[in-house]
Every structure is written in C-alpha cells, then in structure tokens.
Specification:
It is a single chain. The chain has 11 helices and 16 strands. By secondary structure, the chain is an alpha/beta fold. Helix 1 packs antiparallel against helix 2. The longest helix has 31 residues. It starts with a strand and ends in a 6-residue tail after the last helix. The structure holds 5-S-methyl-1-O-phosphono-5-thio-D-ribulose (MRU). The site of 5-S-methyl-1-O-phosphono-5-thio-D-ribulose has 18 residues, from helix 2 and strand 9.
C-alpha cells in the first residue's frame, strides 16, 4: 500500500495473481469497505490500512475545535474496527492513532497532520518489525528444511517482508536451502493465489498443496516445521489464525513436527485471557457455495463459514515475535517478553 496526494492506494488482493490493480481510498468508508471485501487483508496490513483510514476520516471531519474533532475521530475508529472483527491489529492501530491525537498539542489542522504522520509510522515500523521477527525465527529453521505454511502471512499481509514468510525469507537470505509447502487455504485461496505468488517472485522453492493433503504430506514425505501467522493471540497463547490452522496444528502434533506462530507483539491481546473470547468472523456463504461466480453446491444448502479458528496454546511450540522467540508457559512469558514492546 502507499499514500499519494491525499489518498491511500491498496493493491487489490482479490484480483491476484491474474491482475495487478490498485484501489484508491479517499475516505475512511472506502478503507473500511476495502478491508471488509478483503481487497486488503492480513492482520498487520489491515492495521496499517486502518491507520490511514483514521487519517482520511480526520480530513473529512467537520470540526472547528479539538473536542468535536476527537469525538468524530472516535466514530471513525468504530467504523474501521467494525470492518473485520478477528484481527486485533485493527483496534491496536485505531487506538494508537486516537492516542496520538489526544497527546498532540495544537489546533485541528495540527492534529490532522499528526495523524497522517502516525499512519506513515505504523506502515514503516511494520516492515522493521517483520525483519526482526525473521531474524529471530530463522534460527529455528534448519538448512534443507521442508516447511509447511497456511494462508498468507507474507509481504502482502503486512507492510512488507511478512511474519511467517518473513521467517522463511530470513532463512533463505541466510543461505539456507528451504522448500515451502503452501496450503491452498480454502475457501479464499490465500495460499494458492498469494503465498505461492510471493515465494515464486523471490525465487524461494514452493509447492502448492490442497489443504486436505497436509496430513499425508507429513506422514509420507516429512515436514520439518510449520510456521503460520496470527490474527489475535490471547494472553495464554491461544492463537486465532486462518480457518484450517487448528487442523494443521493437530496434524503437526501427531507427527511430532514443531508448530510455530510468527506475529508482532501488537497481535497479542492481553485484555483476553484465552482463545474462547476471540471474536471469530463468519463470512458470506457464497464463498463456499460458489466458485469464481459459479454455483458449486445445491441451492438452499446450509453453510457454516468461519474465517478463522483458534489453536490452543498447548499445540504451539513457540511464538516468534520481534521481541524474541517465546516458549511456554505463555501466560508468564508473553507478559514478560512483550511488556517492553507493547505499542511499538
Ligand atoms: O482472512 P485473511 O486473509 O485476512 O487472514 C489472514 C491470516 O489469517 C493471516 O495468517 C494473519 O492475518 C497473519 S498475516 C501476517
């Protein structure tokens, strides 16, 4: 994503890999729509987009004084946070922007300038954070590793470099040979459309598999580690990520394969004690009944389409953050390692 002449431009991920097209967002409503339609997706990327959404919303507020401005800004924040419920990065970015406006002295134009500056900072910091996640995580990747990943936790899902794919990129850049197996990730196909595209673009060997092949792959061919991203991590380490992640974690445990979650500290939600409290988005049933606009299931069939699941902390070998690699017991270690990094 990039900012130019008062607009946020988002690479439309629903069109990849066939078409490379950017959508221009001129208002907070445009950004909220792009997030809910998944033109931009991935927890850190929607966090950064919503930071710009706050700056755009601030520009559109008709407020002469600070108090009216701040009240309007909180409404913009509510609009953006409601656009997708599971990734906590949205709320984190909105809170960060509100906090900046509250702390900023000066009149309304000064607040508007400060909000745009803060949105730029969120975007630029995210790339740095991902590089640090990669540096910590690549140590866990043996030379010659066969790595399974689910969904897309790469450059497309962040401001750049990626979290789970950042770990893989860093291992590759360190000179290690890796082969990545990318789950296609039904029903939105982030693995097939995005992860394989990203890795191929970087020359990192990637093999695409259907989600249902992961167990047989582990049993028959062997996998050295699994690394995935996260949308929200509870204080005890329970992790919400793309639907199907939980199944991969169970398979990894059954085959004694280490299962790593890579995510920035901002993905940890210390306000909830365990995964049961994480709101799970349910998406349109058409994602299952239709494929590329064509009906593939009988008319009237009942559909359940949760977009995320929760992997219990007991199945997670370690959580890789920019502050370091965190091992169980997560309640104590997440609090200890992340305390100095919250909000950065
Ligand atoms: O529905 P999506 O595509 O936004 O889901 C994305 C994921 O589940 C990612 O793994 C997660 O957001 C981490 S992205 C660095």
């Amino acid at each position: 994503m990039y900012w130019r002449d008062g607009r946020l431009y988002l690479l439309d991920q629903t069109r990849l890999p066939a078409e490379v097209e950017y959508v221009a967002c001129a208002t907070a409503e445009d950004v909220a729509r792009a997030i809910s339609e998944m033109k931009v997706r991935g927890a850190p990327a929607i966090g950064a987009a919503s930071a710009y959404g706050m700056a755009l919303g601030a520009n559109g507020l008709d407020a002469a004084d600070r108090e009216t401005f701040l009240a309007g800004l909180r409404d913009v924040g509510r609009l953006l946070t409601a656009s997708r419920p599971t990734a906590v990065n949205l709320r984190w970015a909105v809170d960060r922007l509100i906090d900046r406006a509250v702390r900023e002295p000066g009149d309304v134009p000064a607040l508007r300038r400060a909000l745009l500056e803060e949105a730029h900072a969120v975007l630029h910091e995210d790339v740095e954070i991902n590089r640090r996640i990669g540096a910590h995580g690549q140590v866990l990747v043996p030379d010659g590793a066969r790595i399974l990943t689910h969904c897309n936790a790469g450059a497309l899902a962040t401001a750049g470099y990626g979290t789970a794919l950042g770990v893989i990129r860093a291992a590759y850049e360190a000179g290690k040979k890796v082969t990545v197996f990318a789950d296609e990730t039904r029903p939105f196909l982030q693995g097939a459309r995005l992860t394989s595209l990203e890795l191929m673009a970087d020359g990192i060997p990637v093999v695409l598999i259907a989600d249902s092949m992961a167990g047989y792959l582990m049993a028959r061919e062997g996998i050295d580690l699994v690394v995935v991203g996260a949308d929200r991590i509870a204080a005890n380490g329970d992790t919400a990520n793309k639907i199907g992640t939980y199944g991969v974690a169970v398979l990894a445990r059954a085959h004694k394969v280490p299962f790593y979650v890579a995510a920035p500290v901002s993905t940890v939600d210390f306000s909830i004690s365990d995964g049961a409290a994480i709101p799970i988005e349910e998406r349109d049933q058409a994602e299952l009944t239709h494929f590329q606009g064509r009906r593939i299931a009988p008319e009237g069939v009942k559909v359940w389409n949760p977009a995320f699941d929760v992997t219990p902390h007991g199945l997670i070998t370690a959580i890789i953050t920019e502050a370091g690699v965190i091992y169980p017991p997560y309640t104590a270690n997440l609090a200890r390692v992340c305390s100095g990094n919250r909000g950065s």
